[in-house]
Amino acid sequence: MHRRYFVLFLLLFGFWLVIAAEADLEHLLVGVVVAMATVWLWRGLVPNVPISLSARGLLLFGRCLWTLIWSIVDSSISVAKTLLFGKPPVEPVMLTVRPALETNWGRVFLANCITLTPGSVTIDVDPETGVFIVHALNPEIAAGLCSWKIIDEIRALELFGKERTANAPASGRPYRVDSVGALAGDHGPDGS
Amino acid sequence: MIRFLANLCFAGSFISFAITTFGLFRVPDAYNRMHAVSVADSMGVGLAVLGLLLLSPSWAVRIKLVVVLALFWIINPATSHVVLKAGMVRGEPLAAGTKAMKG
Lengths: 192, 103
Fold this sequence. Notes:
The structure holds 2 protein chains of 2 kinds.
Chain A lengths: L1 H18 L5 H17 L13 H31 L7 E5 L6 H13 L3 E6 L6 E5 L2 H8 L2 H19 L11 H5 L9
Antiparallel strand pairs in A: 1-3, 2-3
Helix pairs in contact in A: 1-2, 3-6
Chain B lengths: L1 H25 L3 H26 L3 H31 L9 E4 L1
């Protein structure tokens, strides 16, 4: 457990060093104090901090990122054509879709990707049913969302995370809380 | 060559922002205006950062730029979602002819 605290501290301190203007004694001291205080404030998330990076996990995440960047470029051109020349015309659609994702972080990630891609905005996600309400600029974009391959890629990441959690040693907590779920106010089966 | 590519990225970014500004006046309602804005937010900012990455003098600056882009691409969709959800909750009307579709 202590190792996880230390890894979180290192991550935060590294981030501080990246954004700090200089690396003199004053900045280093402030960074150490702020990183330690942040670790203490967010100690509830510590059991979920990954202490090792996995090549397969990074590869799966990289694949999602590549699909996302390609979709942003492709959709930007399509939306630009609509805005400039009206082809295809603006025919707004309110889409209700239930992607095959199980975890809160997977749904949040997909909702983020949908909104980041021009032409579609996630309005709401039902945490109970996993139903997404999406506003799309035209039916083509809405239809493309339902068969978007990033959904399968996020699903693969979810399954990979599940495998790792199943093989990981017990964290000592009475129930498993993923970090995004904790932020969203998820609680354990006992309601605590 | 690098400078030329960077300038190409900046030109692309400028065009994205120009299309967004033009698009704001072309679409019928607040929900669709968000689609116009997302061209600048995703493509425009992405190209601007890519151009700056090409011109960066050191890795420290490059890492900062990537962090800036990552934060932008995380925070921006979240705020877009909150604005639209607020519109929905407050009863902001949808454009005439908006269809409902089930995926």
